[in-house]
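Folds abound. Consider this:
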Amino acid sequence: MRKPLISGSRKGIRVLALPLVAAAVVLTGCGSGGADKAAKSDAAQAKPGDADNEAKDTPARVTVDPADGTQGVLPGKPVIVTADSGTLTSVRVVDAQNRAIEGTIGADGRTWTSSTRTVPGAAYTVTATTKGKKGAENSATTKFGTLKADTVNKVTLRPANGGTFGVGQPVSVMFDYAVKDKAEVERNLKVTTTPNVEGSWGWTKDISGKDRVDWRPREFWPSGTKVTLNANLGGVASGPGTYFARDYESTFTVGTNRVVEVDVPKKRLTIMEDGVAVKTIKVSAGSSEFPTRGGTHVILNKNAKETLDSTTVGLGDSYNLPDVPWVVHFTSSGTFFHSAAWNTANIGVANTSHGCVGMTVPDAEWFFNRVEVGDPVVVKGSTNTETTEPGNGFGNWQMSYDQWKAKSALAG
């Protein structure tokens, strides 16, 4: 028996009972005899359940993976949002700082899948909007949290973002903590160049002992090249319990095609720009006991004034020279260009240094102001047969391109 509609107050209740025949009239509505026949005809052809579907557009039910309220989700796990009917019109996944996870809706219109990763120790909110077959809209909101990393790995990029660097400058990523899955990390590193330049990643140990991966071109960069690194590492595991918490980006421009050539036996260096000798400078290179490292290196940094202390480069107390002007580094282990006022008599005459390349103060100042970080340094004719490791500064150019490519975790 149909329950009566009830209205009233706490003081009294008034009951209004509607006749069943009146209710039936309300449900069928007003119409002529012809309309009534058409309705009967439609009803005769209708399938079970059609009346409900025609009367209303049932909102789509949304399913989110990870499920609402889930905690400890592995960072980087894809977020998938699915509508059981109709289509998804929008999906937004954001963390507590309103940083969005990107994603796309599939061709069926009913599934959204994330294309960027969640990061460790974050709380995410998922908001999805759907539209039914007849246009009815619905929205759903869920929340989940990711596992907090035991250790967050960070990186040091060289060059730092922005600036102009020489044609020998590699793209370098150094890691605070060891990287176990080097292939997975490398897959998430991308170098884009304009114009297109062939090159490869190669893994090495920095002289500091940290893991490092560098990208060098097959040959020196063409002058004017624009280089961009996208390190899409947020949410990537670099070891058990160790994750990256963010992405990184760096952009730089390649400057003048400049190469520094050091001829050790002739005690001269020549600055070449676009294949033309700009200046030749008299020098005193490493002695027979401490010969200058041979091969191709890269200028690492410049200091207008620096103390040269033998204890910092493993030579005991051989020397301590405070405030030496115009110092230019080309290995991390302590091989420099610098002014050598104390050795003027030997400059251009004899190689007497502890491995560095000394010159007069005026020549050193000119050299300092001319060269840039990233310029290649090619040392010829040295008796030093030691090959500089790639992690000692940027010794990447000490090996052939094929040898360098073999150091990629994705090689083969």
